[in-house]
Amino acid sequence: MNVGDRVRLLTGREEGIITRLLSDELVEVAIDNDFTIPVLRREVVVVAAEETKAFGQSAASVAAEKKAASSGAARAAKAAGVAPAAPSAPLKTEGPAPVPAAKNAPVTVQKGLYLALTHQSPELLALHIVNHTDRDVLFTYGEERNGQYRGLRAEKLAAKSASPALGHWHLKDFDQWAAPVVQLLPFQLNGNAAYELLTKRLQFKAASFYTSRQPNVPVLQREAYLFQLDEKPAAPVAVAPEKLAETLKAQLTGNAPAKPAAIAPTPEPAKAIVAPPHEVDLHLEALRPEGGTEGLTNTAILKLQLDAFEDALSRALATNMHEIVFIHGSGNGTLRKELHKLLSRNRDIKFFEDSQKEKFGYGATLVRLK
Fold first, then answer.
1. What is the C-alpha to C-alpha distance for residues 298 and 281, in angstroms, rounded to an integer?
2. How much is the mean pLDDT over the chain?
3. Torsional sign, CA 82, 83, 85, 91
């Protein structure tokens, strides 16, 4: 089994897509395009392409395609600042969907290196790097969140090819997506030129994301949200063959000029990680006791609270705390739901539950760390 495989649960008729390999025995599967659950490998089976050819599309696949074609245009258009087109039939959806491409938008894609996001289901996107050039490319892929980078993949990508799925993201989590960081190094076997390393960091915004859709991306041969990584092509560092021979001869005979010794910069001392308090209050007045919260939208407030939660949780894990309590309040339950969703996806969490009902009611969550 691999990330991106469509699977069916043996204990039911549900189908989903593998979004992560959690362990040798456990995988994460996106069900109904809305939520992910951990499932034992022995409880799922890969839906083979031959099944679709022999019996046609499954009911789940047909429903998913219909939903992908007609879901959430109004909501996505509002997020992108584009007036949505009137639907020809009533739409039922809970998540954002792509804004229809402009009629005059170009359908041809120039040669280059791209990050492409394709629909695996109406709510789930797969990330690929597309090499639409005549040279091979070495690349690394990572994600940056809250100023912390995490490398995830390093591979060689042949000319006119696309990488396997590098990750799977939910459209409903758009505001919480990490920033992809891609490093690219073009090369040509037996070529006489080297190229400089390209580094590209992307930060998605609704207005530009939903208008980046291309109906037929080269190499992938399907619709995708497309972002160019090499707007400024890598500069060749050419070395003439005769100059290279002279340089090698001088080095072998000992007549090459001595190179100045490189002086490594003095590294800054690493800052000590401070453990968070055992109880972390996520109420807005606790996070900003000095005030200054006027004009903040509900989305901005939620993002502020989630950032504080992730910072405290990462410091708790780094300092080997056994447990931590997050006080989120009762309210309408939005913050509690988001916290529980993030905790359920974290492999470093042993379990979590409502904490000390006599003290907090249902307004706090106890997290036990591994």
1. 18
2. 76
3. positive
> Whole-angstrom Cα distance, residue 156 to residue 354?
47
For the segment 55-74, what is each residue's pLDDT rounded down to a tens digit?
Answer: 554 444 445 444 444 444 44
> How far, in Å, CA of 102 to CA of 82, rounded?
10
Interhelix angle 334-344/298-318, nearest 10 degrees? 40
CA distances from 60 to 5, 45, 55, 65, 250 (A): 15, 15, 13, 9, 69
CB of 368 closer than 8 Å to CB of 351: yes
| DSSP output for 137-192 | EEEEEEEEETTEEEEEEEEEE-TTEEPPP-EEEEGGGGGGPPEEEEEEEEE-TT-S
CB count in 10 Å sphere of residue 261: 6
- pLDDT of 113: 92
Encode pLDDT of 133-156 as tens digits. Answer: 988 999 999 999 888 888 888 999
Q: Worst-scoring range by mean pLDDT, 119-128, 206-215, 231-240, 247-256? A: 247-256
DSSP string, 10-50: TTSS-EEEEEEE-SSSEEEEEETTTEEEEEEGGGEEE--HH
pLDDT digits (tens, 9 = 90+) for 150-168: 888 899 999 999 998 888 8
Residues 6 or more apart whose Cβ sits within 8 Å of residue 282 = 305, 308, 309, 326, 327, 328, 329, 335
Structure-token pair, residue 310: 């992730």
Using CA atoms, how far apart are residues 51 and 55, in angstroms rounded to an integer?
6
